[in-house]
Amino acid sequence: MTRRRIEVDPALPPVVVPAEVLNEVFAHAREAEPEECCGLITGRDGDPWRHVIRCRNDMTRHHRRDPQNYPRDGREGFYMNEQDYLRAEDEAEQRGERITCVYHSHVGCGAYFSELDQEFAEQPLFPFPDAAHLVVSVVGGKVVDQALFVREGPAGPDGSPGFVGRPVVHGRW
Amino acid sequence: MSARVRIPAALRNLTGGRAEVPVAAGSLRSVLEAIGRDAPELRDRLLDEHGGLRRHVNVFVNDEDVRFREWLDTPVREGDRVTIVPAIAGGGG
């Protein structure tokens, strides 16, 4: 299946994310540079932005062990540590929450939904098919852009709605 | 006593809704082939045409990542817990 990167559509209404949640994701992205960061956000219906859970990016570890199957390192990709995300899922369940958003950073490039991002998010085994995807762009130690990719587009070949990119703005404290 | 394979939620429709499937001990390859005989569609989701693990999925044996052990030759002993874990990955690049 041929994919093209999805950019944010400025004509779509922005998504308001609570400042404390967005700031935590930004801090993670800055601290992880020059590598990409990744993590999960948990919440409930009507209150999707409650907790940020940082996860480890194992991409460099996999690349060093097996560069043929993992050609990128953590500067150009993320591979969420499985134990971290399973633990996050358990924690969310214990709080009566679910995983509402998967976040990661791009380093030195824009806040788009890349072909690789889409490949994993759309594969049939993806564990959080209803989650949104928050992508933040880090350049020179600063977060310069962010966007949220949600399944609100036209249906794809499998019948599921396609991803579109919506702007993201800080909510009030 | 056999080993147990934990099935991710997205694949339970292929195991009649079962979250865990008992299997005979052996190599991980033989374990996956065994559950694939009962659920061929499940096998196709996990293994590619060359019999290797698909890149969107990983397997842990007792919390140990098989990529850091012997991959599909990793031994699965009686009482072991095998967990199939879909990958979450991507990146800018």
Give a verbal description of the structure.
The complex is a heterodimer of chains A (173) and B (93). Chain A is of the alpha/beta class and 173 residues long. Chain A has one domain (15-171): 3-Layer(aba) Sandwich (Cytidine Deaminase, domain 2). Helix content of chain A is 24%, strand content 33%. Chain A contains 4 helices and 8 strands. In chain A, strands 1-8-7-6-5-2-3 form a 7-stranded mixed sheet. The termini of chain A are far apart. Chain B is of the alpha+beta class. Chain B has a single domain, classed as Roll (Ubiquitin-like (UB roll)), CATH 3.10.20.30. In chain B, the strands form 2 sheets. A 5-stranded mixed sheet of chain B has the order 2-1-7-4-5, with helices on one face. In chain B, strand 4 (57-61) and strand 5 form a beta hairpin. Chain B is globular, with a radius of gyration of 13 Å. The mean pLDDT of chain B is 91. Chain A binds chain B through residues 36, 38, 59, 62, 65-66, 69, 72, 75-80, 82-83, 85-86, 102, 104-110, 112, 114, 116-121, 123-129, 137, and chain B through 8-11, 45, 55-58, 60, 63, 65, 67-68, 85-93. Strand 4 (78-79) of chain A pairs antiparallel with strand 8 of chain B.
CATH H-level homologous superfamily name of chain A: Cytidine Deaminase, domain 2
Tell me the strand percentage band of chain B. 25-35%
> Unreliable stretches of chain A, pLDDT < 50, 5 or more residues?
none
The best one-word shape of chain B is: globular
CATH architecture of chain A: 3-Layer(aba) Sandwich
Question: What's the CATH H-level homologous superfamily of chain B?
Answer: Beta-grasp domain
Q: End-to-end span of chain B in angstroms?
A: 47 Å
Overall mean pLDDT of chain B = 91
Number of helices of chain A: 4
- Helical stretch tally of chain B: 2
User: How many individual domains of chain A?
Assistant: 1
Strands in their spatial order, largest beta sheet of chain A: 1-8-7-6-5-2-3
Return Rg of chain B in Å: 13 Å
CATH fold node name of chain B:
Ubiquitin-like (UB roll)
How does CATH name the architecture of chain B? Roll
Average residue pLDDT of chain A: 94
- Give the strand line-up of the largest sheet of chain B: 2-1-7-4-5
Tally of domains of chain B: 1
Q: Most extensive interface, residues per chain? A: A-B, 42 and 23 residues
Oligomer: heterodimer
The strand count of chain A comes to 8
